[in-house]
Write a structure and sequence with these properties.
Blueprint: H1 2-11, H2 15-38, H3 44-65, H4 75-89, H5 92-98, H6 104-114, H7 117-131, H8 135-153, H9 157-194, H10 202-228, H11 235-257, H12 259-285, H13 290-308, H14 312-334
């Protein structure tokens, strides 16, 4: 029900309120969790009720904020809206099925089949921690879609075009460097916090963290844009491409390279999804994508160097130098 509240806030063009409530929800959950830990009342059931309680509170607040937008119930209006929503969502059903092969459940299946239970625990822990790096892009994704809709309604298509062609590459290069630094820190933090069994998995940490670099342009650019223009039919073929790459790469890489092979397969699937959606949007809506691909080049070359010379200092050094060279050489063409 809290998701309905969030979508309603977006429909009412209140994305800032939505972001504040999301932050409040997480803060409230953390506060209550800290309290119950201190009184020794914490278990999986307790954590479930804490999260549910926080979501319900935020939903009630959202309804109070939206009360002036809520009119009397009209069955005919509901019926017409339901038909539009179903027509819009129908192409997403195949995507929902195929997208299973794009998640960490596929990693878990292959690791469980070819490796050990301990390695599965290590991989899932790293996957969850590095997945936190995508939380900011996910939040921006939720805010950008209604923003694009508003800009289209106000005939600000030139502003959308400038964002996609110039601002997005600039944000990507900055984000990529930030993720590189975060992954460098995590290679030290995760083994120190979780134990020595993670000490030899620096490459897995870096590769899974790098997924946040290549998912960024899609989350804060292409994905909200195609949703704003109702181009949802792309979702299924894109998910199919990602799934095929993910499954094929796992079959090829997991036996010889273990957890590193699974991380490489995951990264390749993320890159394939970005390439598909970028090419599709670029061709269909006449957006230049060359600048974006150039902004990803430091990340691609740094990861390649790291795979050839497995030293984390090689990765962060290459990323720093290449990002700086990119900024210097392309600032007049890409920077807004």
């Amino acid at each position: 029900i809290w998701m309905h509240g969030q979508q309603s806030l977006q429909a009412a063009r209140k994305p800032q309120v939505q972001s504040y409530l999301l932050l409040a929800e997480r803060a409230l959950s953390l506060l209550v969790l800290l309290v119950v830990v201190n009184i020794y009342w914490v278990n999986w059931e307790g954590i479930f009720w804490i999260l549910l309680f926080s979501s319900i509170i935020m939903f009630i607040i959202s309804i109070v904020i939206l009360r002036r937008h809520l009119g009397a119930f009209n069955w005919l209006a509901v019926k017409a809206s339901a038909r539009k929503i179903l027509h819009f969502s129908l192409p997403l059903f195949p995507y929902a099925i195929t997208s299973f092969f794009c998640t960490n459940y596929l990693n878990a299946y292959f690791i469980d089949a070819y490796l050990t239970k301990n390695e599965l625990t290590v991989f899932n822990t790293i996957f969850l921690i590095t997945g936190l790096l995508t939380q900011l892009p996910i939040l921006l994704n939720m805010l950008l879609m209604p923003q694009f809709v508003s800009m289209k309604m106000d005939n600000k298509n030139d502003g959308i075009k400038k964002y996609m062609e110039d601002v997005l590459p600039f944000m990507t290069i900055i984000w990529g460097f930030g993720i590189g630094l975060a992954s460098f820190i995590l290679t030290w933090f995760i083994p120190a916090f979780f134990g020595a069994e993670f000490s030899g998995e620096a490459m897995v940490i870096v590769l899974l963290s790098a997924g946040a670099i290549f998912s960024f342009p899609s989350l804060v650019g292409y994905s909200p844009f195609i949703m704003s223009v109702s181009d949802v039919k792309i979702s299924f073929p894109m998910a199919l491409v990602i799934a095929v790459v993910n499954v094929a790469a796992h079959f090829i890489l997991i036996k010889p390279f273990g957890l590193t092979g699974s991380a490489i397969a995951t990264l390749l699937s993320v890159i394939s999804g970005l390439l598909y959606i970028a090419v599709h949007v670029g061709k269909k809506y006449s957006f230049r994508t060359g600048h974006l691909f150039l902004s990803l080049l430091p990340g691609v070359l740094s990861i390649t160097a790291y795979l050839l010379f497995p030293n984390v200092y090689v990765f962060i050094g290459c990323l720093t130098v290449l990002s700086f060279l990119f900024v210097v050489s392309a600032k007049d063409k890409i920077f807004p």
